[in-house]
Amino acid sequence: MKAWKQFSEKVLVLGLARSGTAAAKVLLENGKNVIVNDAAAKYDDVAVLELQKKGAHLVLGSHPLSVLEGIEVVVKNPGIRYDHPIVAEALTQNIPVITEVELVSYLTQQPIIGITGSNGKTTTTTLVTEMLNQSGCNVKLAGNIGIAATEVAQTMQTDERMVIELSSFQLQGIDTFRPSTAVLLNIYEAHLDYHGDLESYVNAKCNIFKNQHADDYLVYNVDDPTLQEKVMNTKAKKIPFSATKNLYQEGAWIDDIHVYFFDEAIVRLEDIVLVGKHNLENILASVAAAKLNGATNEGIQHVLKTFSGVKHRLEFVGMLEGRYVYNDSKATNTLATQKALDSFKKNIVLLAGGLDRGNEFDELIPHLQNVKAMVVFGETAPKLERTGKEAGIQVIEHASGVDDAAKIGFSLTDAGDILLLSPACASWDQYKTFEERGDIFVQAVHTMN
């Protein structure tokens, strides 16, 4: 654990929300001179009043460049892009710009399991946490799926370890952050509006292992050619996983009957309740990370025999007059929707649409064979309609939002069909978060019972 005296004395926290508020609190509690700048926050907000009481200097309502005067480091909210005027000016002045997760190494020296990837982060983070908990290990959950990493790190005991879900936004802003076990699930073109280009996005993801040492572990998907090339630069012990290769001397893999870790059979495939080929990759990564951190086979088996998915990620909503309803609102890109579609052999009515980031959806076409109808909504509705027509789908309806789409979609199903919300797009054109979008869909489904 690093001493706080090593950290800069005058800090700008740019953007509050959960991570910014947590960063400001921990910096103030450790004697730093903190300026908080947020355009949306109000001076009478509870969190703002608390920071002011702790000694923060507040600049709210706008982003004047003057807040950078005398600043030695900027801690920015992960969602704030690097072309933001203050961030861009800070970089021009050679002021370091980091994210809240970088502060973790000043708060704890306990083991950290860091998990990232374009898809599957939340499922894998949940699985690893549950596998370790069921094995009697003391684990704390942090990051996008839990509470801010700094809040968790402050309360960790000597026998605990942290499991943290990490986005590319967070990882681009690290300097010395180092997980003892890093998990890199996959790399797929995403968030290019934020990162600017694919190379920058890939490099941000690969920051997860840039500070690892020879006694650390890097669990990675050997079937992903981008990762295979990138991990050649790691100093950590490489532990590959694969749904296609026999890795009995190297890592996690499967045959027709079992999931293995090296040459040890861990669980029978037929006992796993989580559906989808993509989830099999998440399971392999989870088994590897859990075993490396002390999980028992019994603990792993219990989780895989009972865990049916996280909320909004291929979440089984229930049966509705013989139809199987799934909420996959967390599918915010085409790869996630491809994997959802490939998880089912039955006829599917697909509900899709959302924020237009400039991409097309041609990659979905080979995965639409089982789709009998589509309901499209949001900014990308015209693009998705074109994609559906190119795939030969005859019935394509437009909806005003997911609640409307649920009703229209249900009217297009027959008993035994799948009603699937898997938007392939971010939610921000109509909804604050993918969680809000998924909750509205689930509520709409329940009102039809």
Structure notes:
By secondary structure, the protein is an alpha/beta fold. It has three domains: 9-98, NAD(P)-binding Rossmann-like Domain (Rossmann fold), CATH 3.40.50; 102-306, UDP-N-acetylmuramoyl-L-alanine:D-glutamate ligase (3-Layer(aba) Sandwich), CATH 3.40.1190; 315-447, Protein-Tyrosine Phosphatase, Chain A, CATH 3.90.190.20. It has 15 helices and 20 strands. It has helices at residues 17-29, 46-54, 85-92, 121-134, 149-154, 168-171, 192-195, 198-206, 225-230, 277-292, 297-306, 334-341, 381-390, 402-411, 434-447, and strands spanning 10-14, 33-38, 57-60, 73-76, 97-98, 112-116, 138-143, 160-165, 181-184, 217-221, 237-241, 252-254, 258-261, 264-268, 315-320, 323-327, 348-353, 371-377, 395-398, 418-421. It has a six-stranded parallel beta sheet with strand order 7-8-6-9-10-11. Strands 15-16-20-17-18-19 form a six-stranded mixed beta sheet, with helices on both faces. Strands 3-2-1-4-5 form a five-stranded parallel beta sheet. Helix 3 (85-92) links the parallel strand 4 (73-76) and strand 5 (97-98). The mean pLDDT is 93.
